[in-house]
Amino acid sequence: MRVIIHTSFYLGEGQMGKWTLRLILILVAVGGWFAYDWTRESLQQMAAQEIYPADQGAPGQIVTVNGRKMHVLVKGDLTADPTGAPLVLLHGFSIGAHQTWFPWADTLAEKRTIIVPDMLNFGHSERVLDPHSDLTHRGQAALLDGLFDALGVDQVDVVGASYGGAVGSQLILDHPGRVRRVVYLGAHIYYDDDFIPQQTLASLPFGMGTAMTWNSIGGGGAAAKTCRNESRLCDHQRLLLIKGTVAGLHALNTLDQDSRLPDDIAQVTIPSLVIWGEDDPIVPLEEGKRLADALGAEIKVVPGAGHVPYEQDPVSVAQWILDFLADGVPKDF
Fold it and tell me: What does residue 104 show for φ and ψ, rounded to 5 degrees?
């Protein structure tokens, strides 16, 4: 009788499970190390980069409002606007703040007195490094209301772009009578329905959220890198070098929002105009139509334009705004 001995190797289910677990642990450890090293390097670069005070190189004036230092640029005579109320431009969620309006806003300044503020944690205004009520829609609106008091301005017209449209709406709702007319440019009103990746990433622990913020919209982001040309930095990049910029953006992305939006948007009853880019990738045109319906307002769409429609068709957008806000002033623009 022959005896056949099988020498093939068999890995039992128990052993297979152990090896799978070990492999997962190894991959987690390696991934964790790379994440730690990337986070550490990003935070070191951020710390070395952010060195300037917020008010350095500010083209406008620094006004203290409710204990906060706010930067505001005024073009024209605040007491001599031809319509009786200066025009306020509220920027979107960009560290460039007032800069994002120019040179296009100079067209508006030819006809109107314009007030271009930097909201808290943007532009040359103060940086608040932790989530604070002043950073909410309600808080930013209160600061703007105080800023107008400090400037001696009773009533204003408002153009709000993206994030600025949300804060402008809060201003209208919380401070009745302050705003006479409002124009919405790609306004982010229905933010509760949107998934915003940078807010999710900003919530990551162990410094990863801050590193993600720096690498997406801070000094490590693609937009900032395009500004670098040897030792020369563009204006937007200089604002990213202000101390506390990324921590301030991180605070904005992680705070618990205090807002009357979108629930109370229909309570904005002052005359309103909605302007949108046909191909807005950030706040889709459907939201613009929804906003116009809620307000009972006219909507004007810029064909082929994205989130900043005045860049694609500056003449038409300026004309629409000036005509809508003129309120009896001759429309000779």
Answer: -55, -40
* DSSP annotation of 119: P
Contact 239, 123 (CB under 8 A): yes
- Give this prediction's pTM: 0.83
DSSP track, 229-245: ETTEE-HHHHHHTBTTH
CA 212 to chain centre: 16
Which pLDDT does position 280 carry in this prediction? 97
- Please say whether the beta carbons of 105 and 111 come within 8 A: no
Tokens of 46: 């951020």
Distances in Å between the Cα of 302 and the Cα atoms of 103, 104, 159, 313, 317 are 19, 16, 16, 7, 8
Give the closest residue to 130 by CA, choosing from 250, 279, 3: 250
Q: Exposed, middle or buried, 223 (CB in 10 Å: 0-12/13-18/19+)?
A: middle
pLDDT (tens digit, 9 = 90+) per residue, 147-199? Answer: 999 999 999 999 999 999 999 999 999 999 999 999 999 999 997 654 455 55
- The angle formed by the CA atoms of residues 168, 173 and 179, to the nearest 5 degrees, is 55
